[in-house]
Amino acid sequence: MDFNVKRLAADAGTLFSRAVQFTEEKFGQAEKTELDAHLENLLTRAETTKHWTEKILKQTEVLLQPNPNVRIEEFLYEKLDKKVPTRMNNHELLGQSMIDSGNEFGPGTAYGNALVKCGETEKQIGGAERELIQSSAINFLTPFRNFLEGDFKTILKERKLLQNKRLDLDAAKTKLKKAKMADARALAEQDLKMTQSEFDRQAEITRLLLEGIGSTHAHHLRCLNDFVEAQMTYYAQCYQYMVDLQKQLGNFPSGFSSNNNQSTASGAASVSVPILPLTGTLPASTANASSGFTELQNFSGSRKARVLYDYDAAGSNELSLLADEVIMVSSVPGMDSDWLMGERGNQKGKVPITYLELLN
């Protein structure tokens, strides 16, 4: 019991001396020990990292979920450790409305059928958006949030301890200056030596933690790469879905085709664009510049090529492909550099280079 009373009294005395020291520093009545420049720079970098991590985290959440009410609801569910109720996103809601209206008008009619196909594509895009949000939450938002709620809180705790140790050190210096008697000076010198040691030790702990910000930046860079890859996959999927939808709508009678002006429509019809395969990453855009393809396009002759991905011909002048099959390819004068002429037995047609791998 006496020990606890003494300990409480000692703690109260320490808090009082810190308060006195802090107040006198504010009024310019006491000297203040300054941290070394390196430690000050580390503290500044940590504060900057915290500020921009919070800002990027907030803006990414807004990007992934623009509705503030939904964000608040998801936040509350997370704090209550409850599962967020599953709800359809905007693309899925639009898709379902299109499907329902298409079925109402009659899927056997051109308009009804088109609405159903558009609705199915919108729901596919909604699913891709859901995957983007999930991937971004795991690989990007969570690491940023973990830094703010974990590592940076530890830094704040140790920095506060350093501030207290610094106040104790300066209070000890002030006490030594005011000591007149030899015994009092001896006790003050001993106290100063102890507080200096504690301050130096806490400064070293804080420095080591702050230097870990460099590792945090490296980790966040990897998270940023993951976020970019997730977005790239999402946009590639959306592009592929819309290209497929446009091809399906293009099979409708001309009276139901696009309402764009004639010059735009005729211009689009004259351009042949190879459709990219739907994969996690896009094939390299410089594939047609490889030595094998360049040689084949510059000289006559044919080569064997392995098909990398399935490809559905968009017209009668193209050749449908199956992944892993081997076909013969050759160059035709005047043909677009992104295409080659493919042959499979008696079948012949244009094939996109991005789907091929030349064989020796």
Question: Which properties best describe this structure?
Answer:
360 residues, alpha+beta, 5-stranded antiparallel beta sheet, 9 helices, elongated
The N- and C-terminal alpha carbons lie at a distance of: 89 Å
Total strands? 5
Mean pLDDT: 82
Q: From the helix content, strand content and strand pairing, which structural class follows?
A: alpha+beta
Runs with pLDDT <50, length 5+?
Answer: 261-273, 278-289
Q: Assess the beta-strand content as a share of residues.
A: 5-15%
Q: Helicity, in percent?
A: 55-70%
Radius of gyration: 34 Å
- With strands numbered from the N-terminus, the spatial order across the biggest sheet is 4-3-2-1-5
Largest sheet: 5 strands, antiparallel
Taken in chain order, the helices and strands follow as: HHHHHHHHHEEEEE
